[in-house]
Here is the input.
Amino acid sequence: MKNISILVPNGAVALGTIEGPFIAFRQANYLLMQTGKEPIFDVKLVGLKREGKVYDRLFTVAPDITIADPRQSDLIIVPAVNGNMEEVIDANKDFFPWMVKQYEAGAELASLCVGAFLLASTGLLNGKQCSTHWLAENDFKKMFPELNLVSDKIITDEQGVYTSGGANSFWNLILYIIEKYAGRDIAVYCAKFFEIEIDRGTQSPFIMFTGQKEHEDEPVRKAQEFIENNYQDKITVDQLAYMLALSRRNLERRFKKATSNTVVEYMQRVKIEAAKKSLEKSRKNISEVMYDVGYVDTKAFRTVFKRITGLSPIDYRSKYNKESAMQSGSK
Here is the structure.
């Protein structure tokens, strides 16, 4: 039997990240029984206190047990929490010693989406790769600059500590864990039952790049604005440095510190974001889109596009352009 503990945190929570794992493990148990096997998942909701928590003013989640109960977990699931993360972390800090103690006694831990902020606060992500919602990337890096955030990944798995990407991608982590605990057949069944695309490894196609502008470095902000307003043109780092009366080295250092991107990376991401929008909405062919965003080398454009989005330009258009999707669906 695998003891699954799903946290019932204080504060605002994405309710689906409590309900989803709960029903997924129960459904896995159901299939096991249908095939003549014993259920293997004992799922409990764990709170700091017995009192139920009201989320979104309508839904009450009542813990089955508290952290004071003598139950050793095999897996602790940390759901996605919302709000001011410093306040959320403080409101749930009493979970952290319990989580660490459980881990030291053999439990595995899994954070869903921005639940990574709580898991990171335990110190158990130190020295490990981790992921979270792509929209929270900059905030996470500010709060935990020492951690190895790989925000393009949907699943990380190191030394019994798991994290997942954003929003509904938590389902991929749950399926991944079900496969580890109950086998591939059960995981595939659950994927089909819930109609979840199994084995999806990246959230890159969903990332919308808006640039990190929550900083106080005015020259860097001017460089960002210049890049975003002139992405069709060939811009060099030396050109930006001259325009801002900075040395190239100084600009590159300050730009990386302020935006978490090198200047060249920022240019590429701005260009590719513009290309994505064109592919989503226009009828232009790939070459036209490429030229519109300032690329003249087809191979370079396709290579950078796939590295950033995880898809080729053609596959991206097929997936997100309404007309292309309708044509594909009618075949």
